[in-house]
Amino acid sequence: MPLTGPVWISSDEVYARLSFVGAARAISESLRDGLDPSADPPRSIVDVSSGQLLIMPSEFARHVGVKIASVSPNNPARGLQRIQGVYLLLDADTLAPVAQLDGVALTTLRTAAVSAAAADVLAPDRVEHLVVFGSGPQAWGHVMALRAVRPVERVTIVARDRDRAAALADKLADGTMTAAAGSADAVADADLVVCATTARSPLFSGNVRDDTLLIAVGSHEPDARELPGDVVARAQVVVEDEAAALREAGDVMIPVAEGRLDPASLVSLRSVVRGEVPVDRSRPRVFKSVGMSWEDLVIASAIYHA
Q1: From CA 268, how far away is CA 237, in angstroms rounded?
Q2: Does the structure show a pLDDT above 90 at 277?
Q3: Do the domain assignments include residue 2?
Q4: Is 58 in the same domain as 144?
Q5: Average pLDDT over the chain, rounded to whole?
Q6: pTM for the whole thing?
Q7: Shared domain check, 247 and 124
Q8: pLDDT of 1 strictly over 50
Q9: Are residues 83 and 130 in the same domain?
Q10: Does residue 273 sit within a domain?
């Protein structure tokens, strides 16, 4: 533990200290080692004049931590990230601060790592076609993280801003994988679909194959969703924690309210990672993430000790 106060871990250091595959492994290992997401305190969401403040505390193993994040919808027009924040990591015994981490990089890394940990057990063995809705940091982070757990042959980027979609595709194409901007129709032959947008209504129709995995990470609000209800209704739906999903995940809550999804059918990520619930490969799988405090703590701790 530093004697002069908490160390600062910058955005560049976050990515230098922990790879996407290392982060995904840390998430899976924490669940196998006994971490129970249902024990996480509910985060506080405070409305302020320019958006929201999220206060996210957690405790596991050697550390306690809290992230203070802000969500400002007008930031992209200013050339700033929509999500800002800082993470404070403390020693669990003394509660002394040991590190502060850049919250934007931590959020990008941990969100994609959780999705990759889910994809490692839920995705088809071969991913020929990955479709990503969105062109921001989470879209980029998810491609990087998912490539760490599955070889990906081609990526289609779907975004409202065609130029941003094309720019991200150019950034991703590296000779081992092709990437291009495309349309929502691309989901029809996708093995893996990622929704990482600010959309409040479904991004595409329900025309997906039975072996497709769909990952939705864009919203933590009860009245917003990225996935069509008919896809969710016929899928095996995996969530970080059932209570959190039924409190915050519009992709789950809206189909439940419509009578199209039985809340008792929800499966926790912990149960599939630990092999307690089998994966149903006869139908689509959906992984819906709202982002939970334990995930930030696991990744912040791994970064600090890297």
Answers
A1: 9
A2: yes
A3: no
A4: no
A5: 95
A6: 0.93
A7: yes
A8: no
A9: no
A10: yes
